[in-house]
Each structure stands twice: as C-alpha cells, then as structure tokens.
Amino acid sequence: MTGVRTRPLRVALLGCGVVGTQVVRLLRENAGDLAARIGVPLELAGVAVRRPNRHPEVPPELLSTDAAGLVSRADVDLVVEVIGGIEPARGLLLAAIRSGKSVVTANKALLAEDGATLHDAARQHGVDLYFEAAVAGAIPLLRPLRESLAGDRISRVMGIVNGTTNYILSRMDETGAGFGEALEEATALGYAEADPTSDIDGFDAAAKAAILGALAFHTRITASDVHREGIGEVTSADVASAKAIGCTVKLLAICERVAEADGGESVSARVHPVMIPRSHPLAGVGDAFNAVFVEGDAAGQLMFYGRGAGGAPTASAVLGDLVAIARNRVTGGRGPGESAYADLRVRSMGETLTRYHVSLDVADRPGVLAAVATAFACHDVSISTVRQEGRGDDASLVIVTHVALDRALGATIENLRKLDVVRDVASVMRVEGMVGP
Fold this sequence. Notes:
Layout: E1 9-14, H1 18-29, H2 31-38, E2 42-48, E3 63-64, H3 67-72, E4 78-81, H4 89-98, E5 102-105, H5 108-125, E6 129-130, H6 142-148, E7 154-160, H7 163-175, H8 179-188, H9 197-200, H10 203-217, E8 227-228, H11 236-244, E9 247-259, E10 265-277, E11 289-296, E12 300-307, H12 311-331, E13 345-346, E14 353-363, H13 368-377, E15 383-391, E16 394-401, E17 404-405, H14 406-418, E18 422-431
Helix pairs in contact: 1-12, 4-5, 5-10, 7-8
C-alpha cells in the first residue's frame, strides 16, 4: 500500500532527570510492543542534557549538550520535553513545532503560563501537542477531558493534584502531627523537595488547575487566573476541628462552571485548603496519591485516581502521548488541538460561592452569640450550624456558614476581628462537599 510509512520514527528527548531516565528505560524495554502498537519502530535519536558524564544509562553517542541543534535536526521526527520551567523549554518546543515536529511535554508550568503560544504554533504548523503527563502523573485524565468527554458538558473538576501536600495533610490527620513535623517526614521520605515552596504554597497545584479548567471549559486559563492559597498556615487545631464535624483537610484544585445573572456563564478556578466530609470520595485519598473528581451533565460523577508523580508513573504518561503522536505521524492524521471556543470570563475569588468553617475565641457572657450573628447578617451570610464550648471566662464558638460570596465571607471575618467580644479568630477554612445550600 503506497503512502504508508515503514522507516522508524526518531525521537529527540530534552532532559534526562528522574522522568527522562525512565522514558529512556521504557523506550528500550518496550521497544517491540511500541513498534507493534504504532506500526513502525521508535528510535532514540538523541538526548539533550547539561552534564553528559552524569548519564551512564544513555549510550554516549546519543548524548548532546546542544538541545537547539538536536530539535532542528532533519532526522528527528518527534520531540519529548521533560526539562521543566519556562525557558529554554518554550524556545525549544517552539523550534521543534516550527520545523514540523510533533511534541510531547510534561511541563505544567509552561502550559499554565503560556500554553496559548504553543497551541497556536501547533495549529499553524499542523503538528500535535500532547501533555498528559503535565497533570496527575500516570493517571489518564487530560485525554478523557479533551476526547472521551468531548460530547459532554463538564460542570466541575475538583481534585487532589499535589502528592506532597496530600501526604503532609494525611499525616497531620492520622497522627495529630503539626505542619512542620509532617513536612520533615515528607522530606525525609523524598515526597518533598529540599525547597518545597512550589508544592506547599500551591503554585504546582495552581498550574495544574489552569490546565484542567482550560480543557474542561474550553477557555484559556493561566496560572495567574487561579486563586491560590497553600497549606503553610494549616494547624493541627484546624485538622482537629475538621475531625469534630466529620471532615478532613485537603488541598484541592477546584474549577467550576458558574451561571451569570444575565443568563451567560463564567468559570472559577481556585486552589486552597478545604474541610471535606469523610464520606466524600476525595477524603479517603491518602499518602502521596492524586485523585480528580469530574462532574458532567451526561456522564455524572467520575473519579480518576492513582500516583500523581514519580519517574516511572510520569514516564508512563509521556510514553502514552508519544505512541499517540507517533500513530498520527504514521497515518498522516492529527490529534485534537486546543479548544478555547467558549472564551468564558474567569471570576475573581471574591465572586466565587463558598462556605466557611470559623473558630472563634470569645468572652463567655450574655449577648456574645447575638453580636456574632449580627456580624454575619450584616454581610448577608447565613449561619448553618453553631457549636459553643465554655472555658471559664472564655468560650469557643465554631460556626459553619451556608454558601455565600467569598468576599462577603471575608468581610464578615474582618468585622468579627473588630468585635470586643471576640478575643481571637482562631481558624478560618473553606468547606466543600457538604450537603445543603
């Protein structure tokens, strides 16, 4: 049959760290199966690294410090990028795309900051841009969102997308440990980096939320559009308070489709700690695992669960993408490109509907509850439950609100801090997944 490719497809690999090393291993060990699945063999054309002497797992003749030269070579068909960061990754991927090479990337930071540039270039030059490994490691998530669920209308995507923070919060819940102690344990086990800022402060999860929201709602969303709060301020007292109401604390990425007053729609995208009922499927996700809960009009509720990080799991996702773009190259087809036709407005956090769990240290005297209730009523925030415990001259009030605008809830907290009867606002945390308004 004419027009069918028979020669091997040659792959350039940019970066050979934890993930890249596993990509090389899987290409070698699974060479026969990959060739059978694609229709032609995959050959490693070269591996771009900074220090060739540190990569004994790669044949010396394949190593190169000239990444730009590697992606521009005429004998390279496909490019895989696992360098990370913005530059030089962006420039290298654009060079590959502009030379007609389809690419696979695991670079969540780049996609969340400037994915539009990559998507535009891929469309212009008729090549594929695949990035399953950018979110949730080995879990098949992005392709179901942009392919399997393409005929559905997604209303919400909510999940645990950072293993480091999930391990820390899980340990705090299981053992009663403080944040610092749990972080030290995560670091000792290799779950946390020496500098855990990206994980702890929510930057990693925010980048992933931007990618998830963009796919789910056909709207360009960047990391800067995502409201971000980390877990550094979560205390053992917060975790204990969550237990007292049948909840656990998780750092969630939440992207939602929201109805506007004029009949239109907008989206919200946020990352922050929440109290979530132990009956919710996400509450049981422990250790460093990831899980994402997707709600669609027709499909209903779906959950994707598995290892969200690590060399081998992430490399598995990379290889899945590599097989897909290789098949397209063999058949002369293309995979789905960017879908941003909806172009919905991204709401600010203040416009987002949430509910709060608030712990107050108050004076134990008549009229306190009335004063506190008035502070909530002034901002049209309705109280769902109140629990009071006395301690001599002081008392503790634990309040869970109904759903309200986040800015109204925030203003209520500021008013509470000014009340004479309130000694301290001991804890404020958002609540998700509870039944009721």
